[in-house]
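=== RUN LOG ===
request id: a7f3
mode: sequence -> structure
chains: 1
length: 101
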Amino acid sequence: VPVRMDCGKEERASEAANIISNMCKLSSANFEAELASSDCEGNVPLSAQTKIENELQGKKMKFFMSKRTHLTEGSNEFLALLKEANECTKMVQDEMKSKVT
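=== RESULT ===
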C-alpha cells in the first residue's frame, strides 16, 4: 500500500488503513483490475508485481500440512519437518548466492 511520507505517522497509518479497507470491500474482479492497473507512465504497481511473483513461485511452495499434527521435539514428525525446513532453507540460500554472483 503506498503511503505519503509528507504527513505524520498517525495520518499515514489512517490513510493506509482506509486503502486496505476499501480494497477488502472490492469484488474479486475489481480487486484484480485495481492491482493490474498501471500508472500514467505505464509502471505496474508493486502490489501487482508481488502478486505475479507469488503466483509464479507458488506452484513450488507448500502452504500447509495435509493433516493436523502436534509436533514434539524429537518425534518422527518433528524430525521430518525439520529436515524439510533445512532443505528449503538451503535452496533459498543457494538461490540468493546465485543472484549475488
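=== NOTES ===
The chain is about 65% helix and 0% strand.
The mean pLDDT is 81.
=== END ===
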